[in-house]
Design a protein that fits this description.
The complex is a heterodimer. Chain A has 35 helices and 33 strands. Chain A is of the alpha+beta class. Chain A folds into four domains: 166 residues, no CATH class; 198 residues, Rossmann fold (3-Layer(aba) Sandwich), CATH 3.40.50.1000; 259 residues, Calcium-transporting ATPase, cytoplasmic domain N (3-Layer(aba) Sandwich); 256 residues, no CATH class. In chain A, the strands form six sheets. In chain A, strands 13-33-32-31-14-27-30-29-28 form a nine-stranded mixed sheet, sandwiched between helices. Chain A is elongated and about 120 Å long. The N and C termini of chain B lie far apart (70 Å). Classes of the chains: A alpha+beta, B alpha+beta. Chain A: It is a multi-pass membrane protein.
Amino acid sequence: MSSLLSFYLDLVPSPPCLRCFVLQLGRDERRVDSRSICVGHRSSSNNEAFIPPKFCDNRIVSSKYTIWNFLPKNLFEQFRRIANFYFLIIFLVQVIVDTPTSPVTSGLPLVFVITVTAIKQGYEDWLRHKADNEVNKYPVTVLEQGRRVRKESEKIKVGDVLESSRDDDTCFVTTASLDGESNHKTHYTVPDTEKDLESLNATIECEQPQPDLYKFVGRMHIYKTDQEPAVRSLGPENLLLKGSTLKNTQTICGVAIYTGMETKMALNYQGKSQKRSAVEKSINAFLLVYLCILVSKALLCTILKYVWQNNPGQDEPWYNEKTQREKDTNLYLKMFTDFLSFMVLFNFIIPVSMYVTVEMQKFLGSFFITWDKDFFDPEIKEGALVNTSDLNEELGQVEYVFTDKTGTLTQNNMEFIECCIDGFQYKYQDAGTDLDGFCVTDGPVNKVQHKAGREKEELFLRALCLCHTVQVKESPEQGQGQRDGLMDQVDGLGADGEGLHPPPQEQRGFIASSPDEVALVKGAMRYGFTFLGFESKTMKILTRDNDVERYELLHVLNFDPVRRRMSVIVRSKSGDTLLFCKGADSSIFPRVRQEEVERIRMNVERNATEGYRTLCVAYKYLNAEEYAQADAGLREARLALQDREEKLMAVYNQVETGMSLIGATAVEDRLQEEAAETMEALQGAGMKVWVLTGDKMETAKSTCYACRLFQKNTELLELTVRTLEDGGRRREERLHELLVEYHKKAVQDAPPVKAGVTRAWSSANHDYGFIIDGATLSMVLNSSSESNSSRYKNLFLQICQNCTSVLCCRMAPLQKAQIVKMVKNSKGSPITLSIGDGANDVSMILEAHVGIGIKGKEGRQAVRNSDYAIPKLKHLKKLLLAHGHLYYVRIAHLVQYFFYKNLCFILPQFLYQFFCGYSQQPLYDAAYLTMYNICFTSLPILAYSLLEQHICMEVLLDNATLYRGIAKNGMLRWGPFFYWTLLGVFHGLLFFFGVRYLFGNPALQDNGQVFGNWSYGTIVFTVLVFTVTLKLALDTRHWTWINHFVIWGSLAFYVFFSFFWGGIIWPFLKQQRLYFVFANMLSSVSAWLAIILLILLSLLPEILLVVFRKLRGPNAGQMKHRLPSSGTSTIFMLSQTASTHSFSWTD
Amino acid sequence: MMASSYTAKEEDGHITVSGPGALRSRKPENTAFKQQRLPAWQPILTAGTVLPAFFIIGLLFIPIGIGLFVTSNNIKEFEIDYTGVDASSPCYNCSQSFSWNSSRPCTCSIPFYLEQPYESNVYVYYGLSNFYQNHRRYVKSRDDSQLNGDPKSLMEPSKECEPYAFHENKPIAPCGAIANSMFNDTLELFYNDPNGTKVQILLNTTGIAWWTDKHVKFGNPGGNSPNLTAAFQGTTKPINWRRPVFDLDADEANNGFINEDFIVWMRTAALPTFRKLYRIINKKSGMVPTLPRGNYSLEVVYNYPVRSFEGRKRMILSTISWMGGKNPFLGIAYITVGSVCFFLGVVLLLIHHKCGNRNNNADISN
């Protein structure tokens, strides 16, 4: 029997069982705030007016389509895109109006595009169907009238009792597939439910489904035949979520309360808002330009046509009479259809295939990120993850990097460093050897100064052992089915000290929701106090004297980021009720007696500057009366259905007062591998790095120094509550004063920053670092008067933009997003990137242009909401500098090239109108018109846009400054666009007029025979295909065999196709226009010579430009070379554990 | 049992599989392609590599250009406009009194003098100006399957041929505007021998159309049936034609749809001013020039009206070389491009030389 069960619906576990319910939903369809569920579908006898509830079934539908609606729905979806719709319109115009090109020419590419997209979406939907089916057909056991029935998962109804028992009222689950937190979580059964499932008659009232994974409010009414109905509160700890996995627990029973699409998991899988990249905006702008060109071309032609036709004899010469229908058509209608015809004729200027190619490039290109073995982390055995491929190129455009501190810059791998008890400092020196000194009388404590009283010491250690929510991972003999041991990321206790501990602890590990807690418990263990675990509501600890003490756990006052502390209320054997509280200094100090604070504050601050995370520990005795009051308050608040959070908070705050401070702890959080190097590379690449953290200023500052974000010559501008309170005046005034002062310093007095110079070699300049905290930030953003607010905001932004790094500490998650949003919307709308690993970073990850999640220890929420996920911070460097850079260059080139090649494709056709009486006669054959973008020129550019490395990756990584070369959308600004357009126009003119002069005498064959209009078009087209392909070949700097294959292959294919197309009388064609045209063309020496000349002449300026650039190049290259490479200055930085910032002065 | 992998993400474009990944090791394969490390040739265009290319191009193009130019210059071409716009022109009367229905053809004779003898084969072209053979309505007004000899299309010409598909309820063969407006002037050349006799020059009517057109693309209905009149039974001639299609030439192999004059006309010209091959004057054996120096006269049976659209008609006599007819453009273009390349090569060489020196100096000073 497996101890692992997966939940396919959200259910309330109740190992013993449950019963019936009342539905309050009336006849009207009004939405109610809560739902009521009859447990086991046993209608309670005291409720006659029972209306069967309508809940959705447990079927998960994540798929969009069914077989039946796929076609219409998918087509509808696709034609909602502007581009597709445009081409559909063109197609319809071609069908309806008499246009120069047959509907096939635009219909075929459109069908191709639509089909490819439909196949892709169909495949994705098929995958979803498969995933759905796997979930929906999963067998489950349902208890029906006491019988166990096997059912398919999708048939579970709300109110069904499911079996999945343990004598204990708890079960463990992991929610790895939900939020990635693989640590075991304890869930509890509803207290006081009877053991007998049959007799349980209960209803559950709970809130309507909502997506928050960590919130649940409900109430359970248990009807007993002889008593008043009992009411029990249900919280998130009673709810098992769909997608979680049962661990260490064999069977549980539960009642289904949310099913199918109403489970929290399903509610959380709603799509994110689509992010659009800057490149896409550029494409749209260019598209608009080309649309204007298109319309004006069509308009010009229409006007000229009617002007020309006014000349006598031109409109309808005797040799070319109109049909009766044409003669009857209204003049204005004719003009309109003529305009449409010209639009159709020139519509190829807006390339259908560009959208497909861009999509393919993004989709396929993103695989290179997932495939990159440098992103593979052997620890978690995962590589990078791409959640959206739309933003690949945005990685090459980042200007601002917002990074979280904990887990991102630092490893979130906590290690207990020292503690301070009653003002005395205890430093733990060496974990390995020190154990020899472990003896009962002496204590493991290495005394630095004097020792605090033994009583205090022990109280402190007990506090550490009791005040937490850590679980002890069971040893193998207890839970037999522990094959999942490998999967757990449990902090196993090392080999140290095992022999000394009582027997069952061979494999002791701790499971906790935060690594700090484990570090503290393990820290206490080093000093001789070992937490042995829970035994149904009793906590056991092993003291230094090898006594086992038992404490009854009465209440846990959970940690939350607002209170920044947590407490437990325990009752000792002697009957004392104690409250232990631990939390951030800022939240503890105001709640303890002030005389104790000073001694400890000093230690805390010193620890904080050294980069440690500090926590203060306090306690208080509760007398019976106090306890009763607190107990009642807590119970009441927990039962509330509305505003439970607020009510609980109020009680917590009330209980956690008047405590006495015992001591403080310092836990070290190591820096991530290569954190400093990465940060330096990012700064070298011209990115501004902002650290946004919820941590306290001192800790964050030291991390910044360690990461080289601040350096010794960085002048720090502090705008925190401390500096605001310095002057002793009102904060608002002081804020104003400081802002103006800093602004003067950093913005006005600063010399104009030259784009090319970076701080690494301009250290003579003053560097500024800016520090702001959450409280001050909210003052800046929400200043009392409206006008001040925007002014402060501006000042603040300007200061920040002139600082090399900015540190924002004490940030609430929402404030992080606020900052990102502020920068994002500031002048020049810079591209922002957020990187974080925890749930508190989600908001900023979602807000920024590019969100990067780190697959860290704090769960998977960040990864889930990110656009890209990487295992380690150090991977960011390659992701941005190499991948991002390349992707940007590739797609920028792709876009420009596409517009270029279609411009010089259509321009000759436009020019031809001047020579054919504005009659919309196409220059090229329909086959060429259709195939040009699909076959002849599509693959080389796709291969280029996937494989091009204009500079190889190593060089990109070594020279971060190269990243600046493409900053600010450098390759897609109007300048380059104009250049490419000009090039397209030049080529178009050259192709057309070159052939025009060749056709000055159409007798081009050596037998005196002449060429007609289709030969003309074919020569132009041949020159065109060769030129655009060779132009791309010229731009290609990285010729893999694939490039060779597609470039030469495309040209060969063109020649082959032309022969083939012209070699057969095609029975389905009305006109055999190209019959032997190509072959005849090749038999003419003049045509050959003209083609070669025109191709060469087209490419000549391009070659010249490259060569001249190269000639200027050597100097530029040398200059670059003389600059110190960013690598050398970081040698010293590799000491990742550097905890003081003295190291950074040595540089 | 494994934890549920509810992985299908609703996302536009990309699907990611993100189960509890710890179970599957997803180490990326270390292949050159996936790591973007495919062996690659990384050409860099430098002055060093481009310079020789410039010189080579220059050295190649200039001779070719000169060759082309000389060839083109050696081609003899004589052009005569016989539209008859001026009152002084011999064809003035014909051009003025034009009527489709006139039963008596109007003829005119234009004398001309060839200053040079034409040694090799001489090609006779007729040229039309301001005639939009490339007008869309015109270009599509044909039925290629009818022209290929398809009996069904013969009787039911394509809709594209409108308004030249039916005449008096009979299908027109060949249908369409192109066929209908076929050039029907007859041009004849006479050599005025110095001794006073007028010698008609033999004009060859075959070899003027593309071989594939004559033998594959165009075909008479009924295959090679000798009786063309029967094959075209039930059709009517194009309105503007004077003779039915089966009466274009006495020679069976040049009659009906495979009449070469007709085929040439059916290949629509690219530009409004164009020429089409009319006849070939084959070189006689021996040393006698095909067309010796002297006086000639062009006798025109003036059938084709062009004045209504201000067109012009020309007759062109031209010899042909390997590059085709006379066209100085290619030669000039080649010489220009070749010289520009050469010149650029020199300039680049100078700059390169200078820069190289400067760089070396800079290196030393460093």
